[in-house]
Design brief:
Blueprint lengths: L3 H5 L14 E4 L4 E8 L2 E8 L2 H16 L17 H8 L10 E4 L2 E8 L2 E8 L2 H16 L12
Antiparallel strand pairs: 1-2, 2-3, 4-5, 5-6
Helix pairs in contact: 2-3
Length: 155
């Protein structure tokens, strides 16, 4: 089976209206949205009026997350000499989590884990770390040694 990363980093789908990797039309906002997934993390990198700007942001994220294996919207040479980490972090919303299976929603941190192709949502927490620890505990219960953990030393 192909890995999740390979699926996300595949060619542009023929039904993609933007014709750019990881750039989607957000109907409610009437703007282009950049969204990229890697492992258990989804990165929402903003809404843009300009399709080319959205493509640039997507490319920066793809290069940072997938490195040499990234399929880009523009030629790779366009990004030489750019500090990818700094540029990528500029576009991350302040509410992105650094932990697997944790995201920010409505003034609280929420946790989830995936098991047998289903996503299980846990309750919400006041702190990002609380959510990450709760997620680790539940993932260990369900997945055992196969669980990807935020705090492996605590297991």
């Amino acid at each position: 089976f192909p890995s999740h990363d390979n699926i996300i980093n595949s060619k542009i789908r023929i039904d993609n209206t933007s014709q750019k990797k990881n750039v989607y039309w957000h109907k409610q906002a009437q703007k282009w949205q950049v969204r990229i997934c890697k492992e258990d993390n989804a990165y929402y990198l903003g809404l843009y009026d300009d399709l080319d700007e959205a493509g640039y942001v997507a490319d920066i994220a793809l290069l940072y997350l997938f490195g040499d294996f990234a399929r880009l919207n523009s030629p790779r040479e366009r990004y030489s000499g750019i500090n990818l980490k700094e540029e990528f972090e500029k576009y991350l919303p302040k509410t992105s989590s650094r932990y697997i299976g944790v995201y920010y929603q409505g003034n609280r941190w929420r946790a989830y884990f995936s098991y047998n192709k289903k996503r299980y949502y846990l309750k919400s927490y006041l702190t990002e770390e609380e959510a990450a620890r709760a997620r680790d505990k539940k993932a260990l219960e369900r997945l055992g040694d196969k669980a990807k953990l935020n705090f492996p030393r605590d297991a």
